[in-house]
Amino acid sequence: MDEFAKFKNRILLYGLVAAGIFELISLIFLGLSTRFVYGLLIGTCVAVVNFNIMIFCAKRVLEKEKPYWSTLGYVIRFLIYGVVLYMTFRSSYIVGIGCGAGFLTIQTSIFYIHILSPKIFRKKKDGETADINDQPKG
């Protein structure tokens, strides 16, 4: 498995963890709501599909040097998000909210991997774990 596939799988795994955390948080506010779970599953699946579409289009732009793939991919992903969100809110506002939370799973995992994780687990020169309030120099 190449380095990029490992990186992609890590993002997808953290996205599934984020979906689980969103569901646990929803239990506090909504109780056990199957509608929210359905929406969360739909939103997470759509987020994963759109993430793969974005990767496919980015590879096309970089390998074949055809920049229209970037715009085409954006429009396709935007339409998918819009149609799915419209249909879920039409079904029930709880399903729509769950779907919106599902859309955020991949973004949350990317945010954690690239922003929170390096700040929390950054090493100091003497080998101690850095404090979260430490700011990078430079």
Structural class: mainly alpha
**How would you characterize the largest beta sheet?**
none
Distance between the termini: 36 Å
Helix tally?
A: 4
How many DSSP-defined strands? Answer: 0
Q: Which stretches of 5+ consecutive residues score pLDDT under 50?
A: none
Query: Which outline best applies?
Result: flat
Topology order in helix (H) and strand (E) letters: HHHH
Oligomer: single chain
Helix percentage range: over 70%
| Rg from alpha-carbon coordinates | 18 Å
Which range does the strand content fall in?
Answer: under 5%
Mean pLDDT across every amino acid position: 82
Question: How does this structure look, described?
Answer:
The protein is mostly helical and 138 residues long. The chain has helices spanning 3-30, 34-64, 68-91, 93-121. The model has no long low-confidence stretch (mean pLDDT 82). Helix content is 81%, strand content 0%. The protein is built from 4 helices and no strands.
How is the secondary structure organized here?
Elements: H1 3-30, H2 34-64, H3 68-91, H4 93-121
Provide the descriptors you would attach to this structure in a database record.
mainly alpha; about 140 residues; about 80% helix
Quick summary of this structure?
It is built from 4 helices and no strands.
